[in-house]
Amino acid sequence: MNNIIICEDNIHERKQLISILNSEIEKFDCKIALSTGNPYEVIRHIDNRTSSFIYFLDIDLNSDLNGFELAKLIRTYDPNGYIIFLTGHAELTLLTFQYKVQALDYIIKGDINVLKTKVSDCLIAVHNNLTAANTKVDNTISIDVGNNILFLDFKDILFFETAGTEHKISVHTHNGQSEFYGTLKNIEKTVSSDFYKTHRSYLVNTKKIKSIDKSNMVIEMTNDEMCYVSLRYLKGLLKKCLH
């Protein structure tokens, strides 16, 4: 079941959104887990939870946190959650580039029919994404890149590394690389046993290693890219590569 969180400070508009969602959620096996006007209640609710949520966030909250700032905090707890922004001002949607927040959609408030349609479209998109991910076999990983889901076979992945942007991961393949929100810790639980954490910033496919420079603590991959290995992980890496 997919849990929905609403953060909308206008009580009338929050009730309106709840009513629309209640007419839709049975179709998509969803429930409203939290409805509030307080962004800090959202953080308290998701703190230390392992499941992801669908978030409907008003941008202009009556708080010291706006919707974009709340979304950035959410990403530290729930990197794979689906965020939908609500706003009465279309120009505010451009600020998403400033805050670097990945969003599924933006809904302009004001027209109840547009709101109903957009809410339904968002739930359909989430449902389709999750359905597609669940139908993939165990030797693949699904990654949310923008509004698309990228499916990668483990054998095609060279390594994962922490990206320059906070809470983002870069996945490297022979065809290039892509960035997405996530943590190495969570990815490590998902990938096959061929992958090994060589450094706090690297998760490497040991089947794609060309050489290991023990003196300089550097790993050369089959595409000639370099990864680091820290002393604490070197012995385990060598053992894994020799078996």
Automatic annotation (TrEMBL):
InterPro entries the record matches: CheY-like_superfamily, LytR-like, LytTR_DNA-bd_dom, Sig_transdc_resp-reg_receiver
Domain named HTH LytTR-type: residues: 147-239
Keyword annotations: Activator, Cytoplasm, DNA-binding, Two-component regulatory system
Keyword Nuclease appears in the UniProt entry: no
Domain of life: Bacteria
Transmembrane segments: none
Single GO term (MF): DNA binding
Domain Response regulatory span(s) in chain numbering: 2-119
Task of the protein: May play the central regulatory role in sporulation. It may be an element of the effector pathway responsible for the activation of sporulation genes in response to nutritional stress. Spo0A may act in concert with spo0H (a sigma factor) to control the expression of some genes that are critical to the sporulation process. Required for high-level post-exponential phase expression of a series of secreted proteins.
Protein name (record): Stage 0 sporulation protein A homolog
Organism from which the protein derives: Clostridium gelidum
